[in-house]
Amino acid sequence: MKKVILILVIFSVFYVKAQDKPSPILFIYDASGSMWGELDGKTKKEIASEVLSTTVSNLPNNQNIGLIAYGHRKKGDCSDVEYLVDINNNSKTKINSVVKEINPLGRTPLAYSTTQAINSLRDSNTKATIILITDGIESCDGNICDVVTKAKAEGIDFKLHIVGFGLKDGETEQLKCAANAGDGNYYDASDASALSEGLAEATSQTIDDAPGNFSVYTVKNGKPVDALVKAYKVGTNEEVDGRRTYGDTVFLSLPQGRYDFKVSALENSRVEPITVTNLQSYNDKISHQTISFDGGKINLITLNNNEGWDCTSKVINQEGKVVGGSRTYGRPKLIEVNPGVYNVEISALVMKGLQTTFIFENVTVKSGETVDISHNFKTGKAIIGIKSDDDVLLDALISILDKSYGKNITGGRSYTSPSSNPKEFILNPGIYEVNIKPVLKKYNGRFKTFTIEVKQGETTEKMVRF
Fold first, then answer.
1. What pTM did the predictor assign?
2. 8 Å CB contact between 88 and 24
3. What pLDDT score does 419 carry?
4. For residue 95, how many other CB atoms are within 10 A of its CB?
5. Statement to judge: residues 275 and 355 lie in one domain
6. Same structural domain for residues 271 and 188?
7. CB atoms < 10 A from the CB of 177, how many?
8. Which portions of this protein are annotated as coiled-coil regions (predicted)?
9. pLDDT band at residue 41 using 50, 70 and 90 as cut-offs
10. pLDDT at 266 over 90
11. What is the mean pLDDT of residues 340-365?
12. What does the alpha-carbon distance between residue 427 and residue 26 come to, in Å, rounded to a whole number?
């Protein structure tokens, strides 16, 4: 994780320095023998050459571009580093034609090639953005992190980004250290698409950028997570800045104000995006937010007339996607979700009426914490029996209409069994119209309608005779 305190000391004032012409970008290009290895049916040399050419072609017309390559002339020579295109060059075509002709051959002298790049900036008193592309780790006993750290301490003005192309787990520690020391980012590229994305982002974050004033670090279970961080003006969809963390601290440039952050994990597709709202940035100091994808919990309590009640539930994120839920069975229910802001919709079972669903809005769940939410539904009982004039249970159809809204709420069939006749209905308090229609043919055309009032916690009974 980057040293926020150190950067705060260096950049005690948040500023933007206007320039007529952007500072140069100097690419250090991997031409070691391993670039003949294949990814998705193409050599890494072909992929890197095509992607770098596209990246260079997309740069501004007034952008000066230099090129250093290593490993392209001699197999075992750790000093095989050549400055192929001077940093004062402004021809994209020249860079692309030179890259196309490079023949991967030798070793991977990362420390030495970076030293040569930094020395050129020292000698010309030029500030620049250095972008190192490598498909392997140091193979010449150098330490690129030490090289970059010493150059920064000397006061040489540069930003270093490193793009690791097809590296394995455990091979990136020194590269991340060097990018961190060089005030840049490490980008991990496993294929052509990721290489293109990494180079595009690296060339967009140059030495000319104002130093970021809001740092974000993303973790899950205590380990860094590669994530996409986007900042929006609070309460809007207006994006102000966005960065990818690549498992490290990322710095956003945000004018003083309040922002909503949407953070999406890129390493685990099952991890839902997190929204963190109303974060404050300042022009004269660095703000910081660590965002954890560790789960938080919702303790859902569903009641009816102050007693536990069986309900179904849905937890819905800010994009309207259902990300969790459970049936309560009348007991408190813990639902684990990623940190974020959710709506929780509960639907009571068995009871009928117009108040059988409730939505808890904007429930904020924080990592490692439990938030309690509770809702108490209200009902009463209506017990309706149907008999013939000679006191025999009568099979009939029952429909119940809410008088206030003119909406049919529920209904049923009484049959002729004492277990279902009288028939019990659990209803929200209110005034209902009840319609009874016997099933037997002898009662064709006959029906009865009456009104009942259901009160909370009370039972209303009605026996209807035909």
1. 0.55
2. yes
3. 93
4. 25
5. no
6. no
7. 18
8. none
9. confident
10. no
11. 95
12. 74
What is each CA distance from 59 to 65, 68, 192, 262, 382, in whole angstroms?
9, 18, 19, 28, 75
Q: Which of 404, 410, 415, 414 is nearest to 426 (CA)?
A: 410
pLDDT at position 270 is 63
Tell me which DSSP letter residue 106 carries: B
Q: In what helix (H) or strand (E) does residue 200 lie, and over which residues does it extend?
A: helix 192-204
- What distance lies between CA 329 and its chain's CA centroid? 32
Output the pLDDT for position 209.
79
Say whether both 170 and 234 belong to one domain.
no
In the predicted model, is pLDDT for residue 158 greater than 70?
Answer: yes
Q: Got the DSSP string for 62-101? A: T--EEEEEESSS-SS-TT-EEEEE-TT---HHHHHHHHHH
Structure token pair of residue 456: 């909370």
Tell which of 272, 292, 312 closes a domain: 292
Write the DSSP assignment of 124-150 as a string of letters: HT--EEEEEEESS---SS--HHHHHHH
> What is the rounded radius of gyration, in angstroms, for the C-alpha atoms of the chain?
34
- Stated as kind and residue range, the H or E segment containing 361 is strand 357-365
pLDDT, tens only, 338-351: 888 899 999 999 99
The residue behind tokens 């001077």 is 86
67, part of any domain: yes
Whether 461 maps to a domain, the answer reads yes
* 173 and 228 co-located in one domain: no
d(CA 179, CA 190): 18
Q: Does residue 224 have a cis bond before it (omega within 30 degrees)?
A: no
Q: What is the pLDDT of residues 396-409, one digit of tens each?
A: 999 999 988 888 99
Question: 281 lies in a domain?
Answer: yes
